[in-house]
Amino acid sequence: MLGSLARWLRLAGYDVWYDARAEDRELTRLSRLTGRVLLTRDRALASSRGIRVLYIQSQKVQEQLAQVLRAFPPQSESAIQPRCSRCNQPLVEVDKYEVEGLVPPFVWVNQQRFWQCPSCHNVYWRGSHWQHFSLCLREAAQASV
Description:
The chain is an alpha+beta fold and 145 residues long. The protein contains six helices and five strands, in the order ααβαβαβαββα.
């Protein structure tokens, strides 16, 4: 399963469809129908014909991310439109006061910028997780060169 990779790619702005319950047949059908690239660690699925497939070699998410960045480089860091890690919708920057009570008080006091998913309403901010993610993304991008 590549759930962690899917979440990381969404935060990096990639449009990612992911469902851990989907059968191989459904994955190939959707890939063919939508033109999406199928990312998989399943060798048999990777040999599917008539679809674009990227066989993910590593079990480590940072190495997986580097492999995807090699195959599909991001446009530019400034052009990245992060997506919700849960539901894949593009995030929208919201006024700080719109998320008061939706985030921990310490976060609300110390952060100035917030983003929210218009679909599931999950709230994001650039705290320590974001800093870690940004560092890992830069390292993966460097490893992909």
